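Handout, page 2. Input:
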Amino acid sequence: MTPIDLFTSFATLLGACVGSFLNVCIYRIPTEGMTIARPRGSFCPKCRAPIRWHDNIPILAWLALGGKCRACRAPISWRYPVIELLTAALFLVIWLRFGPSDATELPSLAMWGTVAFWWATFAAMLVIAMIDIDHRIIPDEISVTGGAAILLVVPLLHGVPPDRSGLETIQRVLEPLDRAIAPGSGSWIQGGLALCFGAAAMAAMRRFSRDWQGNRRTWWGTRWAGAVGAVAGIGVGGLLCHTLWLHGPSAAALVPSLLGSAIGAGTIYAIGVAGKLAFRKEAMGFGDVKLMGLLGAFLGLQYVLLAIFVASFLGSVIGVGLRLITRSSYIPFGPFLCAGASILVLASDQVDAAIRWYLSLFR
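Output:
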């Protein structure tokens, strides 16, 4: 067995174990009075009996118990092993997609960083999708925190976001500002512009921490999000005002991420406003707006718009079928957004080839 085979097996087993943890997140995050850490240990939601360690082994434990609790014999949902299997499959596909292409090549530290980033990102999208299906909410703890975290780490990763368009346009727009504010002079102007950028980002993040009707959520959801927006805004604003930074390597990732996050969230927000005016009822939850900000942060400008298109297509096809089966007028859009983003990340090469082919038809 080669080292690559060992790494592949490790990725699959790790995915199954992470899937078990994701089941805990899906159950506890939207449940009032619970956190991921408290109460400690896993327990049966019916009889509250603690679950032994050997009954927590992913997939195998559910099969060994016959899908029932050892203590009270209450049925254990089939969704638990399905989430574990799905996470294991996602981790394997991500490893095959972003890991070494040659069986004799050992993964570098940078490659491990990229793979770990996509593992964490896809795990977060899976939790968001399942919580949205169950409770019709998208938790700020994942969407707001995840979006801010992605903007901090993308300059350190290779190939994230997969689409890095838009940087040259920003450079051309800001060139007059760079000539007007030469390095080493006019620093107070740069500082003032950075503070203005930070204030705008803080206001946007605080607005993102409110629900669709504008009601304040939690202390965490407003103050912490506002602080993150202020710090990120001042830092990024200062860098953008000094446009020489835009020609550096980190800008090639960070600027498309910022554009993708802003355009993605803004597009969903505009769709929601238009739908509310047209149908006289809420057409899009504000959680979807924040989710699109998270997805845009790792998709980039071009891919985030494609993700919305793919999600709309999937929603129109699958959503109609679900509506006929469930007789429900509400179909959560978050899972379709996550599915569209996942397809574009895992099949970015095929998507690029399809776009080039489509554009060639007009030449």
